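Quick one, tokens below. Sequence please?
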């Protein structure tokens, strides 16, 4: 019998992060695996739970609580029916356990810390597809995590628009 794994997926609710979540469910998650939705809020965000969990991140939040409006208010996370649907599908069709964890701070640092904190076997992140100049100015979260995380990292590229240059 295969060992169950813990797979983290970095989600900021952008189209690319949802694509990464869908990719993880379709290609990586097996029966009994745990999928942890990891959201990093900006350090200046002020939500009711931040004071309690700013240093360690929130407790693991079960899928059932993600559906509740109270959760979204407490953690400042947008309620996203598409994400809930993807997690529901993973839970029902693959028997995966879906939970979420919220951190506050720099996404590069917090995602690398999450790998250790959550004992992840794998991490999936989306890539915004920044050009070379934007990447230098803004930094690339996916590149930093891929280089510094202590587990395998899969970067899922977003779909290019039809009018983008090659």
């Amino acid at each position: 019998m295969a060992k169950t794994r813990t797979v983290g997926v970095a989600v900021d609710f952008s189209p690319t992060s949802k694509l990464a979540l869908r990719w993880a469910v379709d290609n990586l998650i097996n029966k009994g695996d745990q999928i942890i939705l990891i959201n990093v809020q900006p350090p200046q965000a002020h939500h009711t739970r931040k004071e309690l969990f700013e240093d360690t991140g929130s407790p693991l939040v079960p899928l059932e609580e993600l559906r509740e409006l109270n959760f979204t208010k407490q953690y400042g996370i947008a309620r996203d029916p598409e994400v809930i649907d993807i997690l529901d599908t993973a839970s029902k069709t693959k028997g995966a356990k879906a939970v979420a964890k919220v951190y506050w701070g720099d996404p590069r640092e917090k995602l690398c810390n999450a790998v250790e904190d959550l004992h992840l076997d794998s991490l999936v992140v989306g890539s915004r597809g920044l050009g070379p100049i934007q990447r230098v100015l803004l930094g690339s979260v996916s590149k930093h995590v891929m280089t510094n995380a202590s587990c395998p990292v899969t970067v899922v590229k977003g779909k290019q628009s039809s009018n983008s240059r090659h």
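Residues 133-139, 161-166 have pLDDT under 50 and may be disordered. The chain has eight helices and six strands.
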